[in-house]
Amino acid sequence: MNIFVVLKMVPDTVEELNVSQDGKSLDSEFLRFKLNDPDEHALEQALILKEKCGGKVTVIALDAPEVDDVLYTALAKGADRAVKIPVSQACLGTKATAKVLSDFFSSGREAVTLDTLVLAGSYAIDDLEGELAPMLAVHLGLPYLGVVSNVAASGPGLVVQKEFAGGLRGEFEVELPAVLGIQSAEKPPRYVPVAKVRAVMKSAKIEELEIPSPTDAVCLDVQRTYKPEAGGRAEIFEGSPEEIADKIVDALAKSGVI
Amino acid sequence: MAISILVLAEQLRGGISDITYEMLGAGRAIAQALGVPLEAVLLGSGASQLASSLGAADKVFVADNPGLDLAAPEAVAEVVKTLIDKTGAGIVLVGCTNVSLGIGSILAARSQMPLVNFCRAIKVDGGALICTSQLFGGKILSDVKLADGRGIIGVYPGAFPLEQGRSPRTPPTEAIDVPVQPSKVRFKQYIKPETGDVDITKQNVLVAVGRGIQTQDNVQLAEELAQALGGAVCASRPVIDQGWLPLTRQVGKSGMTVKPRVYLAFGISGAPEHWEGMQNSQCIIAVNTDPKAPIFDGAHYGAVTDAVELLPVLTEKVKMRKG
Predict the structure, then answer these.
(1) Residues from chain A contacting residue B290 (CB–CB below 8 Å)
(2) Structural domains present in chain A
(3) Ranges of chain B whose pLDDT falls below 50
(4) Do B188 and A98 touch (CB under 8 A)?
């Protein structure tokens, strides 16, 4: 199988997020970036598929802060190739990103083959459109299924599981070539030691492929970006762990559960 | 300017999903403000009969075709696109649910309509719409203007009241006949979750753990508290993905929806996908090291401290109080 995994960097929400002066976007000065969680699962699912049925895994990313580290880490985990498209993903929007990536597949150097599977995270947390995989599928003219949590090769195609709700899943047959939006891999993403990533940084290379920036990127008209009303409803208990525990016990008693 | 508002009704296993009524309620408010009709479209087997419960719509288009049962998003998008071309609908509401995700994006990529996803609030401002979307795990909101009142809006579950989308009247329906092409994505069967030892939807007290629990061993600390309280342990997605607890203990979008008397959340930030599954708990007590965690915006009580440190202390105090 010829597997491509599209990776996207997003701000780490563990860090404090601040709105910039214009009141419309995030202040990028102190942002720390990490790989979008579902994308990390997409990579893991690709590596599991490769281990089970052979093939090649290529990771692709647009330019973003700290993206090189993520691409090298993907190589250290077992990806065969890493390609960076030197178009900044900042403010590009999902529609335009999908266009850039479909140009990647029609660049002459890459092509969608009969055994091509394109994986991306089912959604991204940083974007108003938020779903790259289905938009890319439209551009590539390929079938799509999202919120997928298990992918297995079956004959010439795939059998995949899509999550619904309440733990209920659906099993689907998908013909290749196809695009899937991955929610979670069948196993937790693997860990790779930093030393191995460092070694890969010395021995492997990130390929770069020039794709023209889209000229017709239509961005949504954001009027205002802000934090939700602070101080909502929660009454905050303060003090030592013992004091906090006492107050929680009082609250539990008030609710009638003890 | 929108000629009409179209709601993509959602059904799963022969029942109308709650999100459908939430969207009908939200859609009715927009339709009223813009002075345009509210229409819905329902696809799949049994659609003709199910349509009678969508009385909040002025009209329901029905494609009662088994070929559209759990159809690939592209097939559904194709039907909706045909309908938009026919009716001139300017605003399309689609659920941000696992069932419907992807359809809005395909529609947006195929048409020139903009897409605003993860929407929690919609205001009409003249002929324009202001949509409020929730991003970055619930930490940031963005107001987006759809200037000419045209666009596809992905509606977040639980954001709009269900009741306003319910109506006792029977709506007029119109059957639409759309050829369904053979698809390269085909539904085969449902996979039901394995029956767990504990049904977390039936518990009075739930002790929930998230990423902040740090290690698999620490889950035991939550188990001990749950035992002391006569409840059960459940978790947010990261803990389930790690394999620290079985799928039957997952709360949230893909997992269970729970409404216990008390929901204790340890090391859970409160991302929208989790909040969706536990927001109707009678009392929510949240413990997290991050004072800005969104869970505190909705919880009744909170403490900014390390869950791992607090858990054993709390378990002891509970045992003491119960005597």
Answers:
(1) 14
(2) 2-208 (3.40.50.620)
(3) none
(4) no
Q: Chain B: residue nearest A177 by CA?
A: B184
To test the contact with chain A by mutation, choose from B19, B69, B80, B301 the residue with the greatest count of A C-beta atoms within 10 A, namely B301
**Any idea which of A28-32, A168-172, B92-96 has the lowest mean pLDDT?**
A28-32
Give me the sign of the Cα torsion angle B81, B86, B87, B88: positive
The structural domains of chain B, with segments of one domain joined by +, span: 5-175, 200-322
**Does the CB of A184 have a partner CB in chain B at under 8 Å?**
yes
DSSP string, chain A: -EEEEEE-EEE-TTSPP-B-TTSSSB--TT--EEE-HHHHHHHHHHHHHHHHH--EEEEEEEE-TTHHHHHHHHHHHT-SEEEEEEEE-TTTHHHHHHHHHHHHHTSSS----TTEEEEEES--TT-SS--HHHHHHHHHT--EEEEEEEEEEETTEEEEEEE-STT-EEEEEEPSSEEEEES--SSPPPP--HHHHHHHHHH---EE---PPPS--PPPEEEEEE---TT-SPEEE-SSHHHHHHHHHHHHHHTT--
- Is A245 touching B (CB cutoff 8 A)? yes
pLDDT at A141 over 90: yes
Q: Write out residues 143-162 of A within 8 Å (CB-CB) of B.
A: 143-147, 149, 159, 161-162
Instruction: Identify residue A63 by its one-letter amino acid code.
Output: D
| Of the partner residues B135, B229, B314, the one whose CB lies closest to the CB of residue A245 | B314
Q: Hey, which CATH number is domain B5-175, 3.90.550.10, 1.10.3720.10, 3.40.50.620, 1.10.10.10?
A: 3.40.50.620
Residue of A nearest to B157 (CA): A165
What is the percent of chain A with per-residue pLDDT over 90, rounded to a whole number?
84
Q: Please check the confidence at residue A242 and state whether its pLDDT lies above 90.
A: yes
Structure tokens at A106: 């029609």
pLDDT of residue B197: 75
Q: Which of B123, B317, B318, B320 to mutate to test the interface with A (most CBs of A within 10 A)?
A: B317
Size of interface A-B (CB pairs under 8 A): 278
Question: In angstroms, rounded to a whole number, what is the distance separating the alpha carbons of residues B274 and B256?
Answer: 10
Q: For the segment B298-322, what is each residue's pLDDT rounded down to a tens digit?
A: 999 999 999 999 999 999 999 999 8
Nearest by CB to B248, from A94, A167, A237: name it. A167
Strand order in the sheet with B91-95: A221-226, B140-146, B128-135, B115-125, B151-155, B91-95, B5-8, B38-43, B59-63, B173-175
The rounded Cα A82 to chain-centroid distance in angstroms is 16
Fold match between domain B5-175 and domain B200-322 = yes
Query: Closest approach of chain B CAs to the CA of A185, in angstroms?
Result: 8
* A230 burial level (CB within 10 Å; 0-12, 13-18, 19+): exposed
Which CATH number does the domain B200-322 belong to among 3.40.50.1220, 3.90.226.10, 3.30.390.30, 3.40.250.10? 3.40.50.1220
ipTM value, please give it.
0.93
Q: What are phi and psi of A231, to 5 degrees?
A: 70, 20
